[in-house]
Amino acid sequence: MKIYITKPTNYRVKLLVNTGVSAAPVNSFGRMVKDEQVVARNLIVEQQHPTAGQIHVVGVPVKFSDTPGGVRTPAPLLGEHSDKVLSGLGYGVEIESLRRSGVT
């Protein structure tokens, strides 16, 4: 009978890195949001969603010193920007007709 002693993920990653192999753990979502690099780079940010309340979303992954980006608003609700998008595509009075027929 073989007995395997399981080593923690961090032990195995450190072993690989120390031998010159680029390695990182494949994290579950729960571990990913607590990862020191994810936290340090603000890759998960909180948002106030109009129907879901306080939520966590992916932050801006690329960081620029002169023009830092950020997550300013939550994802739009279904159809929230339909009028603006359709108007930008040249629709006018047809928008209300589309809405009545259930398209937008």
Outline of the structure:
The chain has five helices and two strands; from the N terminus they run H-H-H-E-E-H-H. It is of the alpha+beta class and 104 residues long.
Task: Give an account of the 3D structure.
By secondary structure, the chain is an alpha+beta fold. The protein has a domain at 74-104. 32% of the residues lie in helices and 12% in strands. It is built from five helices and two strands, in the order H-H-H-E-E-H-H. The protein has a two-stranded antiparallel ribbon with strand order 1-2. A hairpin with a 3-residue loop joins strand 1 (44-49) and strand 2. The radius of gyration is 23 Å and the shape is elongated. The termini are far apart.
